[in-house]
């Protein structure tokens, strides 16, 4: 039998439910994009099939246990102190694990859930206040003037820009950046966004961290995954529960025998470049690979002689060239496709 039942205190848009059938009828009528997932979630099977985002390899369908989903929901409820009757906003697509788990948490923990169709400004047409919500960076950016109506906010699905972080620390809202993936059933670690610019992710309870021989993160989270998860994320491990994220091993650039982490250089440049940008590389006969800067812009406001380059970067980190591109290539959840965007300079 399915272990997932609807909590007696769970409400959706203010409506409570006495059985699964009445709940699924409402979902099919008003939230049809979530119906297939919720129907499978509440049936008698022990597992459910989900599609990975490709964080640990090529995207694929995997089977995860419903018990693990409940464990993940319980861990989130305990860590963030979100008991029954928590007022929560659901504004994420159910296509991704983050959106799926907002449903699971609310149903299992007995939250009072308000659902809006996923869009870039989910608070615009909503005047309610919430104890908890989850957003992607674009949604948080577009909702800045309204975020104080949320007590606790988690942001995932992409990096938080320097400019957005500067605004988030001004809010009374407690904001966390999450780390996780489909294989770990969303977040297994979080980093609080605060004035002290703390850069460490801290794992949730019952999650142990280690490194493989590439210095990539290994996640042992038996409550949510029966397998050890080996990632492609290069990290600096501070303990078996804390780490600093350095970048993706796929993106490491070897230039003149020195390894560079593009994400770390981007972090240094972020206060000075408003437009979306990435550090990447091109083949070079002398260096092997040479660092270059791609900026999404139709103008050429930034040149290599701009003073901030020497101010914040070492001489080896300074790009050898700048390319200006009208429009980057993005994934469906607004992440820059580095390889595809790099190809645009040849067109």
Summing up helix and strand content along with how strands pair, one would put the structural category as alpha/beta
Radius of gyration: 21 Å
Q: Low-confidence segments, ≥5 residues, pLDDT <50?
A: none
- Identify the CATH class of the largest domain: Alpha Beta
Average pLDDT reading:
93
**Number of domains as seen in the coordinates:** 2
Please list the strands of the largest sheet in the order they lie side by side.
2-1-6-5-7-8-9-10-11-15-14-13-12
Distance between the termini: 56 Å
Number of strands: 20
State the helicity in percent bands. Answer: 10-25%
Largest sheet: 13 strands, mixed
What's the name of the CATH homologous superfamily of the largest domain?
ANL, N-terminal domain
Overall shape = globular
Instruction: Provide the CATH architecture of the largest domain.
Output: 3-Layer(aba) Sandwich
Helix-strand blueprint:
Elements: E1 11-12, E2 15-16, H1 20-30, H2 32-41, E3 47-51, E4 61-65, H3 66-79, E5 87-90, H4 97-109, E6 112-115, E7 130-135, H5 137-142, E8 150-155, H6 162-168, E9 174-181, E10 186-193, E11 201-203, E12 208-211, E13 216-220, E14 229-239, E15 242-248, E16 253-255, E17 258-260, H7 262-269, E18 277-284, E19 288-296, H8 308-312, E20 321-325, H9 338-343
Parallel strand pairs: 1-6, 5-6, 5-7, 7-8, 8-9, 19-20
Antiparallel strand pairs: 1-2, 3-4, 9-10, 10-11, 11-15, 12-13, 13-14, 14-15, 16-17, 18-19
Helix pairs in contact: 1-2, 3-4
């Amino acid at each position: 039998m399915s272990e997932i039942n609807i909590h007696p205190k769970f409400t959706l848009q203010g409506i409570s439910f006495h059985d699964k059938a009445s709940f699924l009828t409402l979902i099919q009528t008003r939230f049809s994009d979530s119906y297939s997932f919720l129907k499978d979630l509440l049936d008698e099977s022990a597992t459910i099939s989900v599609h990975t985002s490709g964080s640990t390899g090529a995207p694929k369908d995997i089977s995860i246990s419903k018990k693990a989903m409940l464990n993940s929901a319980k861990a989130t409820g305990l860590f963030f102190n979100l008991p029954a009757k928590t007022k929560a906003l659901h504004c994420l697509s159910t296509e991704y694990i983050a959106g799926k788990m907002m449903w699971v948490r609310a149903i299992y923990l007995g939250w009072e859930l308000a659902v809006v169709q996923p869009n870039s400004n989910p608070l615009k047409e909503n005047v309610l206040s919430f104890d908890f919500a989850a957003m992607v960076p674009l949604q948080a950016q577009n909702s800045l003037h309204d975020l104080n109506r949320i007590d606790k906010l988690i942001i995932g699905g992409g990096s938080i820009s320097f400019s957005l972080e500067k605004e988030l620390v001004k809010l009374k809202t407690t904001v966390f950046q999450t780390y996780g993936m489909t294989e770990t059933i969303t977040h297994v670690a979080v980093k609080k966004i605060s004035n002290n610019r703390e850069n460490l992710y801290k794992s949730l309870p019952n999650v142990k961290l280690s490194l493989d021989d590439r210095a990539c993160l290994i996640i042992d989270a038996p409550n949510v995954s029966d397998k050890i998860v080996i990632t492609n994320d290069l990290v600096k491990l501070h303990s078996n529960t804390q780490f600093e994220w350095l970048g993706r091993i796929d993106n490491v650039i070897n230039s003149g025998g020195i390894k560079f982490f593009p994400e770390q250089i981007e972090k240094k440049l972020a206060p000075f470049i408003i437009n979306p940008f990435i550090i990447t590389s091109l083949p070079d006969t002398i260096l092997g690979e040479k660092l270059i800067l791609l900026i999404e812009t139709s103008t050429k406001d930034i040149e290599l002689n701009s003073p901030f380059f020497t101010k914040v970067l070492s001489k080896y980190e300074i790009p050898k060239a700048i390319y200006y591109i009208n429009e980057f290539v993005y994934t469906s959840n607004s992440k820059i496709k580095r390889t595809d965007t790099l190809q645009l300079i040849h067109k």
